[in-house]
Specification:
Layout (H helix, E strand, L loop, with lengths): L4 H16 L2 E5 L3 H13 L3 E5 L3 H12 L2 H4 L5 E4 L10 E4 L15 H16 L6 E4 L4 H12 L6 E3 L2 H16 L6 E2 L2 E2 L7 E2 L5 E2 L2 E2 H6 L5 H12 L1 H9 L6 H15 L4 E10 L5 E12 L2 E5 L6 H24 L7
Parallel strand pairs: 1-2, 1-4, 2-3, 4-5, 5-6
Antiparallel strand pairs: 7-10, 8-9, 10-11, 12-13, 13-14
The chain binds adenosine-5-diphosphoribose.
């Protein structure tokens, strides 16, 4: 059937709109990569290129999501590929290429294998998309994002890791369940490395305008129960790995990555806890670690220094030491990472 004039012009408008959209490349089309693609399409943040060494997975997921466009009413293009040329001139790149944990493994156990993968990814993206805002999700996060920046030579304010938003949203969720209050009435923060030493910031947490200390004093929650919730937050990823038996968490990690991409693309200047490069902030030099940052059109525009209690300071420093130790392990695997 011939396409009518009105329909034809609508198709033209839609195609032009697609051409003008931002380009978001997802390196790794596994569980998180696929979920990222779906969320980005639903939010129409930009056209999506799904890249994976397993080309069929990237192509299959791109096509599957694209086929839902008329149902969900989104207008972006989706493409699957195993060729870095197709990711050329991306505005945003989100990296999940790598191996996830198996039950009983820590994130740190992934270091050797994911370091090799991130080197390949860095080589693939640095020449084709030198101006992209790059969000890394591959674990062990803080060390992998630092290696990614070193390998790629991309600007430090344009290379950032996703962890703090996820850890904070887990803490917020557990608190909301315990206190029977909506998550949007809780303001919280989890900082430090994305591992067993992450630090839930008690002093910066507010529940419906009240501090956690107030809630303990008024008997709404015991110190013991709060400590259990903090421990559950630290083990939040492992709890899911154990349930799934195969693979690790992907819905909440993807949602967290999308929030960072959206703040950059729309210049929202949101303050978000992310793994950012520290040059003296929080007394830490030359290291990536989880701190609150403002993300806007220039990438990481500012690192926010919140005041820490003495106990939080001690725990934060322990967490920083754990990241430094793991980075030293990475340098042992690949000595080129030791050079600036
Ligand atoms: N280049 C591109 N893609 C790669 C490469 C590579 N060199 N090596 C592996 N991949 C792809 C795999 O083919 C797979 O499709 O990365 C994808 C990873 O997907 P999953 O195994 O489903 O893992 P996922 O749950 O998405 O987690 C990815 O994020 O949170 C972290 O710990 C997690 O490190 C893991 C990563």
């Amino acid at each position: 059937m011939a396409i009518g004039y009105q329909n034809r012009s609508r198709v033209c408008d839609a195609n032009n709109e697609i051409k003008m959209k931002k380009k978001i490349s997802l390196i790794g089309a596994g569980q998180i990569g696929g979920t990222l693609a779906h969320l980005i399409a639903l939010k129409e943040l930009g056209n999506v290129v799904l890249f994976d060494v397993a080309e069929g997975i990237a192509k299959g997921k791109a096509l599957d999501i694209a086929q839902s466009s008329s149902v969900d009413g989104f207008n972006v293009s989706l493409q699957g590929t195993s060729n870095y040329e197709d990711t050329k001139n991306s505005d945003v790149i989100i990296i999940t290429a790598g191996v996830p944990r198996k039950p009983g493994m820590t994130r740190d156990d992934l270091l050797g294998i994911n370091l090799k993968i991130i080197k390949q990814v860095a080589d693939g993206i640095c020449k084709t998309s030198p101006n992209a805002f790059v969000i890394c999700i591959t674990n062990p996060l803080d060390v992998i994002v630092m290696a990614l920046q070193r390998y790629s030579g991309l600007k430090k304010n344009k290379v950032v890791g996703m962890a703090g938003i996820l850890d904070t949203s887990r803490f917020t969720y557990f608190l909301s369940k315990e206190l029977n209050i909506s998550t949007n009435k809780i303001k919280s923060l989890v900082l430090g490395g994305h591992g067993d030493t992450m630090v839930a910031m008690i002093k910066s947490t507010e529940v419906d305008g009240k501090s956690l200390e107030d809630l303990i004093n008024s008997g709404k929650i015991s110190k013991k129960r709060l400590n259990e919730i903090i421990l559950r937050t630290k083990n939040g990823g492992a709890e899911i790995v154990k349930f799934l038996e195969k693979g690790s968490a992907f819905y909440a990690p993807a949602a967290s990555g999308v929030q960072m991409a959206e703040s950059y693309l729309k210049d929202q200047k949101k303050t978000l806890p992310c793994a950012a490069f520290l040059k003296g902030e929080y007394g830490v030099n030359n290291l990536y670690a989880g701190v609150p940052v403002i993300i806007g059109k220039n990438g990481v525009e500012k690192i926010i220094e919140v005041s820490l209690s003495d106990e939080e300071k001690v725990n934060f420093n322990k967490s920083i030491q754990a990241v430094k130790d793991l980075y030293s392990a990475a340098v042992k695997i690949d000595p080129t990472l030791g050079k600036d």
